[in-house]
Write a structure and sequence with these properties.
This is Glycerophosphodiester phosphodiesterase. The chain is an alpha/beta fold. It contains 9 helices and 9 strands. Strand 1, helix 1 and strand 2 form a beta-alpha-beta unit. The chain is globular, with a radius of gyration of 17 Å. It binds SN-glycerol-3-phosphate and calcium ion.
């Protein structure tokens, strides 16, 4: 059975149970009845796209340092499972290309977040190049970022992937996004769930923007959001939201 009411997005894989953004977390999520897998991308010193949330390896590996200062090969020497538990020892970092193969194999949609594009000149072009090379179906890809300029850059290339803008609760000015302007280049406006009201969603829908709030790991909260007419939820616990 599909998720008829709303789309379920597995945030960093099945990250409530497995080390985020690793193969084991993705494979666990892809075996569920999810609609999208969500990932975060950065760029290495040798110009490779790599999948990790933070711009450093400090929190989720046994190493330290910034992603931009490491080559892919150096990043692959570290362990990305141990921080979550001894049983996850040996999980490696993934190249973006590997995740593309994985979602193709499972025929799932991919929600790609470009992280900190200001640190990675050219990351947008590299992403588009790799998507093209992998021949992923356009309809299976959504590219999003907190950085609107990065998304506008992609829009300006004329590619027809769906695009999204993320809205953080921390930055006050984001609380009153210009829906009309955003709708000129994006298809999704994905806010921190605490920013969601019925009016927020109605305004987004008026401009044909879909709304998939993050990060919703609780059924009571999701029920309230669903009443606000959201289009999907981004969750660390897709196993409790989809009919699996
Ligand atoms: O997909 C939205 C969400 O992932 C944005 O926040 O910090 O978890 O990447 P963050
Ligand atoms: Ca993310």
């Amino acid at each position: 059975m599909t998720n008829s009411q709303i789309k379920v997005v597995a945030h960093r894989g099945l990250s409530s149970k497995y080390p985020e953004n690793t193969l084991i977390a993705y494979e666990a999520a892809l075996q569920l009845n999810i609609d999208y897998l969500e990932i975060d991308i950065h760029k290495t010193a040798d110009n490779k796209l790599v999948v990790i949330h933070d711009d450093s390896v400090d929190r989720t590996s046994n190493g330290t340092g910034k992603i931009k200062d490491y080559t892919m090969e150096q990043l692959q020497q570290l362990d990305y499972g141990l921080w979550k538990g001894e049983s996850f020892r040996g999980q490696t970092i993934l190249e973006f290309k590997d995740v593309l193969k994985l979602v193709k194999q499972y025929n799932k949609k991919l929600l790609i977040e470009i992280k900190k594009p200001e640190q990675y000149p050219g990351i947008e072009q590299l992403l588009l190049k790799q998507l093209k090379e992998a021949q992923v179906q356009h309809s299976n890809i959504v590219i999003q970022s907190f950085d609107m300029e990065s998304i506008k850059k992609i829009y300006a290339t004329g590619v027809n992937y769906k695009l999204g803008v993320l809205i953080s609760a921390k930055k006050y000015w984001y609380r009153r996004p210009n829906f009309k302007k955003i709708a000129t280049f994006a298809h999704f406006l994905n806010p921190n769930y605490k920013l969601v009201t019925t009016k927020f969603v109605a305004t987004a829908h008026k401009y044909n923007l879909k709304v998939m709030p993050y990060t919703v790991n609780d059924k009571v909260i999701s029920a309230k959001l669903i009443k606000s007419n959201i289009d999907g939820i981004i969750t660390d616990a897709p196993d409790i939201f989809c009919d699996c």
